[in-house]
Amino acid sequence: MAAELVEAKNMVMSFRVSDLQMLLGFVGRSKSGLKHELVTRALQLVQFDCSPELFKKIKELYETRYAKKSAEPSPQVPRPLDPLALHPMPRTPLSGPTVDYPVMYGKYLNGLGRLPAKALKPEVRLVKLPFFNMLDELLKPTELVPQSTEKLQESPCVFALTPRQVEMIRSSRELQPGVKAVQVVLRICYSDTSCPQEDQYPPNIAVKVNHSYCSVPGYYPSNKPGVEPKRPCRPINLTHLMYLSSATNRITVTWGNYGKSYSVALYLVRQLTSSDLLQRLKTIGLKHPELCKALVKEKLRLDPDSEIATTGVRVSLICPLVKMRLSVPCRAETCAHLQCFDAVFYLQMNEKKPTWMCPVCDKPAAYDQLIIDGLLSKILSECEDADEIEFLAEGSWRPIRAEKEQSCSPQGPILVLGTSDTNGLPPASSTPGVGGSVGSALGGIGSGTGVAGGPETGKPGADVVDLTLDSSSSSEDDEEEEDEDEDDDEGPRPKRRCPFQKGLVPAC
């Protein structure tokens, strides 16, 4: 098929104006315009709408033209016919002085310097964009070739839409006022054939459609010093500036030639919204709870080579993106963690600024790799009063609630006694086992040892029992026992002042 397309293009390039008009009239296309416009229109037909009937018509016009030329007298000696006489090689019609196939192809077809392929070589490919479904390829990735030594280059491209494509655009819904869902977009990337390329704009880019310039996404502002602002490189919508008819559209790309090679391509796409992608994900990306449970068991399976056994893993029910409870728990199949993020906010975020990076592990999480965790979705409906759960080794789970309540309890008991009486002594406690200890601890303490605001100041105060003075209180008891033994031998002695701090009573 590729060989037939090349052959048909070569035949079209050798046609005269009358031949081109007959070919365009055969398919109902406009026959008016200059020769290069007719050539462009005919090549577009061959490239995108080549049917067996059209190919047969091209061969008939080609054979009719060269049959007339062969009937004219020629001074050359005739040679015997061979099987290839009816289908001469492309170099035969291109050897005339008025036709230069490489120059005409590069100048009039797209102006991008795309020469006919002499040998098969890898083509530039662009990455698939989740928010754009490709419907037709209007222009394959074509390299921007500088035409001079100037830094600022201009590369024109001429093409026309088919009636079917025009109808698809007109009948599509509006995403917002003036923006159709079916669009003609321009994509630019590096001319690298090693892997699919992401969109990348050349310096000083400007895009002109027919007679008006098209807006190109600007730079993101950078608040960090020394960091250059970045430009979001995404497809450029040209639909609102195009002729939605059989008329020819002219696109001119202005770009800066600073050593790097770029390629441009034109596509007819259908733009999707985050809601569309969410519905598709719920349809094709839902993972059964039993499969998710098996993944949990695999994560917690005992490793014989490891000295540390993992008995459980905690998972938060709060989305790390917006710090709200998960509604559609989602993660990428390539992620090694069980923690999920909310698919609704993740898709909305990438609709505004596409990065497709996991907010948990900061690794690529493309749309085609996303799954909805069926087990966590079930847990969210059953556990509404907890913000965290723990998966256990056998695949079960439990909510994490009790630990928060325990963390709020006091670390140690605090005993506050009532106000002192007129002698500076607190009233006896009615609690069994407490009054005796407190009373013995207060024995031998004079009225001047109350807390601040006691009898010395004329204000009642509260005595606090310090339960942390076990070691010091035991040493003081030993000293009191020795003093009592001496008192038995020498007689009564005057009362001593309590060495303890004011307001603190040791607990025996």
TrEMBL record:
<dbReference type="GO" id="GO:0000785">
    <property type="term" value="C:chromatin"/>
</dbReference>
<dbReference type="GO" id="GO:1902174">
    <property type="term" value="P:positive regulation of keratinocyte apoptotic process"/>
</dbReference>
<dbReference type="Pfam" id="PF14324">
    <property type="entry name" value="PINIT"/>
</dbReference>
<dbReference type="GO" id="GO:2000042">
    <property type="term" value="P:negative regulation of double-strand break repair via homologous recombination"/>
</dbReference>
<dbReference type="Pfam" id="PF02891">
    <property type="entry name" value="zf-MIZ"/>
</dbReference>
<dbReference type="Pfam" id="PF02037">
    <property type="entry name" value="SAP"/>
</dbReference>
<keyword id="KW-0832">Ubl conjugation</keyword>
<dbReference type="GO" id="GO:0061665">
    <property type="term" value="F:SUMO ligase activity"/>
</dbReference>
<dbReference type="GO" id="GO:0006974">
    <property type="term" value="P:DNA damage response"/>
</dbReference>
<dbReference type="GO" id="GO:0043124">
    <property type="term" value="P:negative regulation of canonical NF-kappaB signal transduction"/>
</dbReference>
<dbReference type="GO" id="GO:0000122">
    <property type="term" value="P:negative regulation of transcription by RNA polymerase II"/>
</dbReference>
<feature type="domain" description="SAP">
    <location>
        <begin position="12"/>
        <end position="46"/>
    </location>
</feature>
<dbReference type="GO" id="GO:0016363">
    <property type="term" value="C:nuclear matrix"/>
</dbReference>
<dbReference type="GO" id="GO:1905168">
    <property type="term" value="P:positive regulation of double-strand break repair via homologous recombination"/>
</dbReference>
<dbReference type="InterPro" id="IPR023321">
    <property type="entry name" value="PINIT"/>
</dbReference>
<keyword id="KW-0539">Nucleus</keyword>
<dbReference type="InterPro" id="IPR013083">
    <property type="entry name" value="Znf_RING/FYVE/PHD"/>
</dbReference>
<dbReference type="GO" id="GO:0061157">
    <property type="term" value="P:mRNA destabilization"/>
</dbReference>
<keyword id="KW-0238">DNA-binding</keyword>
<comment type="pathway">
    <text>Protein modification; protein sumoylation.</text>
</comment>
<dbReference type="GO" id="GO:0005737">
    <property type="term" value="C:cytoplasm"/>
</dbReference>
<dbReference type="GO" id="GO:0060887">
    <property type="term" value="P:limb epidermis development"/>
</dbReference>
<keyword id="KW-0808">Transferase</keyword>
<keyword id="KW-1017">Isopeptide bond</keyword>
<keyword id="KW-0436">Ligase</keyword>
<dbReference type="GO" id="GO:0001942">
    <property type="term" value="P:hair follicle development"/>
</dbReference>
<dbReference type="InterPro" id="IPR004181">
    <property type="entry name" value="Znf_MIZ"/>
</dbReference>
<dbReference type="GO" id="GO:0007417">
    <property type="term" value="P:central nervous system development"/>
</dbReference>
<dbReference type="GO" id="GO:0061630">
    <property type="term" value="F:ubiquitin protein ligase activity"/>
</dbReference>
<dbReference type="GO" id="GO:0033235">
    <property type="term" value="P:positive regulation of protein sumoylation"/>
</dbReference>
<dbReference type="GO" id="GO:0008270">
    <property type="term" value="F:zinc ion binding"/>
</dbReference>
<dbReference type="GO" id="GO:0003714">
    <property type="term" value="F:transcription corepressor activity"/>
</dbReference>
<dbReference type="GO" id="GO:0010804">
    <property type="term" value="P:negative regulation of tumor necrosis factor-mediated signaling pathway"/>
</dbReference>
<keyword id="KW-0833">Ubl conjugation pathway</keyword>
<keyword id="KW-0805">Transcription regulation</keyword>
<feature type="region of interest" description="Disordered">
    <location>
        <begin position="418"/>
        <end position="508"/>
    </location>
</feature>
<dbReference type="InterPro" id="IPR038654">
    <property type="entry name" value="PINIT_sf"/>
</dbReference>
<feature type="compositionally biased region" description="Acidic residues">
    <location>
        <begin position="475"/>
        <end position="490"/>
    </location>
</feature>
<feature type="domain" description="PINIT">
    <location>
        <begin position="112"/>
        <end position="272"/>
    </location>
</feature>
<dbReference type="GO" id="GO:1902231">
    <property type="term" value="P:positive regulation of intrinsic apoptotic signaling pathway in response to DNA damage"/>
</dbReference>
<feature type="domain" description="SP-RING-type">
    <location>
        <begin position="304"/>
        <end position="385"/>
    </location>
</feature>
<dbReference type="GO" id="GO:0016925">
    <property type="term" value="P:protein sumoylation"/>
</dbReference>
